[in-house]
Write a structure and sequence with these properties.
Elements lengths: L2 H20 L1 H15 L22 H14 L4 E6 L5 H17 L2 H14 L2 E8 L4 E2 L5 E2 L3 E7 L4 E3 L12 E8 H6 L5 H10 L6 E2 L2 E2 L4 E2 L8 E9 L4 E7 L12 E4 L8 E4 L13 H25 L1 E5 L5 H9 L15 E5 L4 H17 L3 H5 L8 H14 L1 H24 L8 E4 L2 E4 L20 E6 L6 H15 L3 H6 L6 H12 L44 H22 L1
Antiparallel strand pairs: 1-19, 2-5, 2-14, 3-4, 6-7, 7-11, 8-9, 10-11, 11-12, 12-13, 15-16, 17-18
Length: about 600
């Protein structure tokens, strides 16, 4: 290691805790929003988090807005479309597409993406694409290999650290995150250098000694709730050097051991293994102005007004009052029961006096505030399905399109975010040495096995990943209501019906029963399946056995002209001739 590199790493180790401390305001703003969205009854005492106990808000609008944003952007697992720039590579692109869709389903990619959207709503969404640990694989050379498996993980902003002075993440001098691992796993993992593992062993289980200027106990979890001691590790990406360093750190990102545990070259995108979802970008700033930050004042206003109305409602009273001179009559009325007959000196002795109650002006203003919150959240009621449904699927779609325009910029950012994640996941899957799974593809009505093999297996892949020049496009992530799905079904079926004659020539026909079954499922109306019943076609009724029934040979239809037949056809010709002769006589008479 040269002096320049040693000096750079020394400055890096000093910069990590300083920038983590500089990002404390971002973490506290996120903690405040999370505390309010979690609700008053939620246990807020969470280790490692600066949670602030919220007021008792009767309307949890912030939580609803977070759920609506998640449903709007990441309701479903993304489907992946892969295409190649040349025809000869399209076959591999189809196989690659199938492998990505199957692998993303296996790893439940949608859950990590939904967590990224929630983090982006409250602060900043960070996804890490890397090679996670996997079960070691025995190769043919009788050697064990533990290369890892591609994985996508949502990183909490409370565990993420970066160059806070940069104007964009592409310009950061470093990016890193921290995570916990078992102490015993580190000291026994042969992937790390033995010298580094010995240093950790020498430190042992110390929790109070000050070692190398750092408190070892802050990096080693010895809580009674922990099954075993845990270490904080940090993966640090240095863009200029294109490397990922792994350090042992404490809870404040102080490096405990100067030398890194490992060093890996990076060949992917310019921000390393980290991908960012920012729903509130601010020019020249990496710190986002998240939707939660902007909705929080209106959330507080709505709940403050609603609490005011609640207090007025609680203080409302209905009091019966009367003249003191009629005290005896008042007492008799008070002590009477239903159905009693009373003799009163003054029958109009009592009057009902109503005290206080919810103010109508405050109530109207509260309704307006709730409406303004919904608008700022992008038509909250419709996105959550809480508003009144439209009469038809087309009207429902028009409302959905209006919501889509409000959410257009967020959806565009999210699609770009997912495209980067899926592209990096695909690159790691392409280069994964031992990741393999079975796949089947239908060709000509037959199911053909096309397994995805690890890079070290025979018949896997040739060349490098970038040689294939594949384009990755994620889609089908937004939520679709049953009404929207029903509209798409009806529209497609209406398109197929005019093609019925062509389909019948090819031995196919539209399936009305399946259409009705899906309509019954989407509308929750089982009666629709009974609208069509199975009957014997009229031309097949009364056929003689021996091949003339439904299972017999096909019928032959012969078309003849009116003048070439016999029998009934001949009688018809004679009638036509008589009508023609009568017409000729009439013309001659004229």
């Amino acid at each position: 290691m040269d002096v320049t590199r040693a000096g750079k790493l020394t400055r890096l180790r000093a910069a990590m805790p300083k920038h983590f401390a500089a990002l404390v305001k971002l973490r506290k703003a996120r903690a405040k929003s999370l505390s309010i969205a979690a609700g008053y009854e939620y246990p807020h005492a969470i280790a490692g988090g600066d949670w602030i106990v919220s007021e008792e808000d009767p309307l949890n609008l912030l939580r609803q807005a977070a759920d609506a944003e998640t449903i709007s952007l990441a309701a479903n697992r993304p489907r992946i479309l892969a295409s190649a720039s040349t025809v000869d590579r399209q076959g591999f692109a189809l196989k690659y597409e199938m492998a990505l869709n199957l692998y993303s389903k296996t790893m439940q990619l949608e859950q990590e993406l939904q967590e990224c959207v929630r983090n982006a709503f409250f602060s900043l969404g960070v996804a890490k694409v890397y090679m996670a640990e996997s079960v070691p694989v025995l190769l043919e050379s009788n050697e064990w290999m533990d290369p890892g498996r591609p994985y996508v993980q949502s990183i909490s902003p409370h565990h993420f650290n970066y160059d806070s002075e940069a104007t964009a993440f592409q310009h950061c001098s470093f990016l890193c995150d921290r995570y916990r691992v078992a102490y015993q796993d580190i000291v026994s993992d042969t992937r790390f250098k033995s010298a580094m593992r010995n240093k950790i062993k020498q430190l042992g289980m110390q929790t109070n000694d000050d070692i190398s200027g750092q408190e070892w106990g802050k990096s080693l979890s010895t809580s009674e709730d922990s099954i075993e001691p845990l270490l904080f590790l940090s993966d640090v990406f240095i863009p200029k050097d294109g490397v990922v360093l792994t350090y042992v750190v404490d809870s404040d990102f102080n490096v405990v051991i100067d030398e890194p545990l490992s060093e890996i070259e990076w060949q992917g995108q310019e921000t390393g293994c980290y991908h960012f979802l920012n729903l509130g970008p601010v020019p020249d700033k990496t710190t986002p102005s998240s939707p939660a930050m902007n909705l929080l004042p209106m959330h507080n206003l709505c709940n403050s007004l609603y609490r005011h109305l609640m207090r007025q409602a609680m203080n409302q009273k209905d009091i019966n009052v009367g003249d003191k001179a009629d005290e005896e009559d008042i007492k008799n009325i008070r002590d009477s029961i239903d159905g009693d007959y009373l003799g009163l000196n003054n029958p109009s002795v009592l009057q009902t006096l109503r005290i206080a109650g919810p103010d109508q002006n405050v109530f109207s203003f509260t309704l307006n505030a709730l409406e303004q919150f919904s608008k700022q959240a992008g038509n909250l009621e419709h996105k959550l399905g809480l508003s009144q449904s439209a009469d038809t699927a087309s009207q429902e779609g028009m409302i959905g399109n209006n919501v889509g325009r409000v959410e257009a910029h967020n959806q565009a950012r999210f699609v770009s975010f997912v495209r980067g994640i899926v592209g990096e996941l695909g690159r790691l899957l392409f280069t994964a040495k031992t990741v393999s799974f079975n796949m089947q593809r239908e060709i000509g009505g037959l199911q053909i096995d096309t397994p995805w093999r690890g890079a070290v297996e025979d018949g896997s892949r040739m060349g490098e990943y970038f040689d294939y020049d594949l384009d990755i496009e994620p889609y089908s992530m937004a939520y679709k209501s049953p009404q929207q799905r029903l509209g798409e079904l009806d529209q497609t079926f209406q398109m197929i019906l005019p093609l019925a004659p062509i389909l019948m020539q090819q031995g196919q026909m539209p399936d009305v029963n399946y259409w009705l079954t899906e309509r019954a499922r989407l509308t929750n109306n089982a009666c629709l399946e009974k609208l069509v019943m199975s009957v014997v076609p009229p031309e097949e009724q009364g056929q003689a056995p021996g091949g003339m029934g439904p299972g017999g040979p096909p019928k032959e239809y012969i078309h003849r002209s009116a003048g070439s037949g016999s029998g009934s056809g001949q009688g018809g010709n004679e009638q036509l001739a008589m009508m023609a002769a009568a017409s000729s006589d009439n013309n001659n008479a004229a």
